[in-house]
Amino acid sequence: MAKNKRDWAEINARKGKRYVERDQKPAKPARAERMERRQPEKSFDEAPAANVIIGRNPLMEALKNDREIEKILVGKGAEGSVTKIVAMAKDKGIPLYQSDKQTLDRIACGRPHQGVIAYASAYSYSTLEDVYAKAEAKGEVPFVIILDNLEDPHNLGAIMRTAECAGAHGVIIPKRRSCGLTEVVAKSSAGAIEYMPCVKVSNIGQTIDQLKEDGFWVAACDMGGTTYYKQDLTGKLAIVIGSEGFGISQLVRKKCDFVVSMPMVGEITSLNASNAAAVLMYEVRRQRDEK
Q1: How far is Cα 213 from Cα 215, in angstroms, rounded to an integer?
Q2: Averaged pLDDT for residues 223-233
Q3: pLDDT at 39
Q4: Strand order from edge to edge, sheet including 198-201
Q5: Helix, strand or coil for residue 73?
Q6: What is the structure's pLDDT at 12?
Q7: 200: Cβ–Cβ under 8 A, 6 or more apart, which residues?
Q8: Quick one: residue 69, left, alpha or beta (phi over 0 = left, psi -120 to 50 = alpha)?
Q9: For the chain, what is the radius of gyration of the CA atoms?
Q10: Do 273 and 289 form a contact (C-beta atoms < 8 A)?
Q11: Which of 32-41, 135-144, 273-282 is least confident?
Q12: b/e map of 244-266 (b: 16 or more CB within 10 Å)?
C-alpha cells in the first residue's frame, strides 16, 4: 500500500530527519549572485615591487628628473600623454615593450596604471671613471668584464659575485637587450652588487673603442681562439662574455684584439655564461698573482 506525504513525514520525523515540502525549499540564488559570493573582495594588500613606477604622471616626473629606467611597458592602444612618454623614452634610449592589459593589471596589483608601467633601476650605475678610480685606489692594473647582451639576471648576479671575489674592477653592460640591476640580480650576487661597479653604456662597440684608447687589450671569449691559459692576460684587460643563447655578436668580436677559448672535450660544446666568466676571471687572477 502506497504511503502518502503524511505517512512519510511521520517516518522521517521518527528517524530524526526534517521533512520539507518542495514548495517550501529555499530558491537557489541566481548564477550572478553565486559567482559574486565566490569572488573575494578586491584588496590592495599586495603592493607592487619597490622599483615599479605605475601611471603616467609618476613616470613622466621620473623621466624629467633623469631617474634610471630599465624598461617601460606600454599597453596596446594606449593614447594621449603616453605618446609623449614614448617619445621621451626613445630620446633617452630606454627600451619600450608592448604589453596587454592583463599583464599590466597583474604587475600593478590592481592599482590604476593608465596603460603604462616602468621598471626603475634598483641600484645606481657607475662610470668608466669610477672603474679606473677603483683600480688606482688598489694600486692594480684595471680589469673589467664586458657582457654582450646578457639577459638572465641570475647570470649577471653570479658574474658580479665572481668578479668581486676575483678582483675585477668593474662590469659593463649595454642599455638594450640586457638585464639591468634588478632585485633578482642583487640577490644572485650575494651582496657583491654593493661593491662591484656596473657601467651601463649605449653601445658596446663604441665602449670597446674607448677602452682601447685608454690602453686596454680586449679579449673575446668565443670558439676558435687561443686556449685561455696560453694567452697573456696580465695587462690592462677587458674580457667580453656573450649572451646565453647567441654568444658574442660578430660586430663586437671583430672589435676585440684577440679571442680566447676553453677546451670542450665532452658532448656539450659550451658553458653557461657565468661559468665561462668565472674560469677566465680566475685565470687572470692566477697570472697576475704569479707575475
Answers
A1: 5
A2: 92
A3: 45
A4: 198-201, 170-174, 143-147, 237-241, 217-227, 258-261
A5: strand
A6: 59
A7: 68, 125, 172, 173, 174, 175, 180
A8: beta
A9: 30
A10: no
A11: 32-41
A12: eeebbbeebbebbeebbbbeeee
Q: Which of 140, 156, 130, 141 is nearest to 241 (CA)?
A: 156
Q: Is 212 helix (H, G, I), strand (E, B) or coil?
A: helix
Q: Give residue limits of the domains in the chain.
A: 52-120, 128-290
**Encoded amino acid at 5, one letter:** K
Q: CA dihedral in degrees (51, 54, 58, 59; nearest 10)? A: 80
List all residues 6 or more positions away from 67 whose beta carbon is below 8 Å from its beta carbon.
Answer: 120
Q: For domain 128-290, give its CATH number from 3.40.50.800, 3.40.1280.10, 1.10.260.40, 3.60.60.10.
A: 3.40.1280.10
CB 288 within 8 A of CB 234: yes
User: What CATH topology corresponds to 52-120?
Assistant: 60s Ribosomal Protein L30; Chain: A; (3.30.1330)
261 in helix, strand or coil? strand
Average pLDDT, the chain: 82
Cα separation, 149 vs 242, whole angstroms: 7
Residue type, 254: K
The strand pairing partners of 126, in sequence order, are: 199
